[in-house]
Write a structure and sequence with these properties.
The protein is an alpha+beta fold and 327 residues long. The chain has 2 domains: 91 residues, Phosphorylase Kinase, domain 1 (2-Layer Sandwich); 228 residues, Aminoglycoside phosphotransferase (APH), C-terminal lobe (Aminoglycoside 3'-phosphotransferase, Chain: A, domain 2, Alpha-Beta Complex). It is 49% helix and 16% strand. A 5-stranded antiparallel beta sheet has the order 1-2-3-5-4, with helices on both faces. A 3-stranded antiparallel beta sheet has the order 6-8-9.
């Protein structure tokens, strides 16, 4: 059924005449297909219908066009967004699926440089692009709204299941750590930043396509401007599980990102907050997904329970040890 819809969309928009369609993979909120014809490849993204999430492909299309206008070379190109079918078609990027934990030292330097480029983008430049391209600007996420979505709302979903032993376990673990996180935020610096916002490590990769000397950022559906103290590097580092290889990857990313920084103390405060943000946020995301899918008896619910448990165990040392002992 999806293949027929995709073929019809490609033909209607005169992108392909008789494409071969295959499933590339299933993300946390979208399905990704590969359309091929006469050596031409396109990625077609559609919303999953089995997870209770709002569509974000229109946002992805919007900010990928902005990235292209800025001549950002490490993002795929948005070819077409069909709002009727809710389909986003983007250019195909070759390389290995991976995350920041898979980068070697040279690639980590490239990755850090690219993150700093995103961090340097000004909201005024975005508003100028919106005016010139006749796009409706997206309002920045504030510190309050971002934390409400990632912490308060998720905790509220979990509280709706307080008779469940696992919900009680998550709440007992998370609630005091939210206070620690907000204390750390006081030491960090609030800034309006442009973030990809979904480069976090997970078992299926972290929205990177990696080749020898290139690191592409894919899946831009959560991108936008955020007024927060979380630099993207802190969020990325905080998402990586601190296994032996994970700790090496975390230190490599920290070292490459901070190598030429002069105000290291202030940056450290922001990175500390970002890491704690990720260490708390990721298990809460998994726990929320578990309880949302529990309502429909989804076959993947146990996977999210395992991810939440693993994330909580992994996060504990970061809330107990001094920053310099983390790596």
């Amino acid at each position: 059924m999806s293949e027929d819809i995709i073929k019809a969309c490609l033909v209607m928009h005169d992108l392909m005449k008789n494409p071969h369609i295959s499933l590339l993979g299933k993300g946390e909120s979208n399905l990704n297909y590969l359309a091929e014809e006469n050596g031409t490849k396109l990625v077609v993204r559609m919303v999953r219908d089995d997870v209770p999430l709002h569509n974000r492909l229109a946002t992805e299309h919007h900010f990928m066009m902005f990235a292209e206008a800025l001549k950002i070379k490490f993002a795929p190109k948005s070819v077409l967004y069909d709002p009727v079918q809710d389909i986003h078609i983007i250019s195909y990027v070759d390389g290995k699926d991976g995350s920041a934990a898979d980068l070697n030292e040279a690639q980590a330097k490239i990755f850090s440089k690219q993150l700093k480029l995103l961090d340097s983008i000004k909201y005024d430049d975005y508003l100028t692009w919106c005016r010139k391209s006749k796009q409706q600007p997206h309002i920045p996420h504030t510190f309050f709204t971002r934390n409400k979505i990632n912490f308060d709302d998720r905790l509220q979903t979990i509280r709706e299941h307080t008779k469940d032993d696992f919900a009680q376990k998550v709440l007992a673990w998370a609630e005091p750590k939210v206070e620690v996180l907000y204390e750390a935020a006081q030491q960090a610096k609030l800034e309006l930043r442009f973030l990809h916002n979904d480069l976090r490590w997970n078992e299926g990769g972290g929205n990177l396509k990696i080749s020898d000397d290139k690191v592409f950022f894919i899946d831009w559906e959560l991108a936008g401007f955020f007024e927060d103290a979380v630099p993207e590097i802190g969020d990325v580092i905080g998402s990586i599980r601190s296994m032996n290889a994970g700790k090496l990857a975390m230190k490599r990313l920290y070292d490459t990102y901070t190598a030429k920084e002069k105000d290291i103390k202030q940056l450290d405060n922001s990175i500390i907050y970002g890491i704690l943000w990720g260490k708390l946020g990721n298990p809460l995301w998994a726990a929320e997904r578990y309880f949302l899918l529990l309502r429909i008896n989804h076959p993947e619910i146990e996977r999210y329970k395992i991810l939440a448990d693993r994330g909580m165990q992994d996060a504990n040392p970061y809330f107990a040890l001094p920053f310099r002992d983390w790596f």
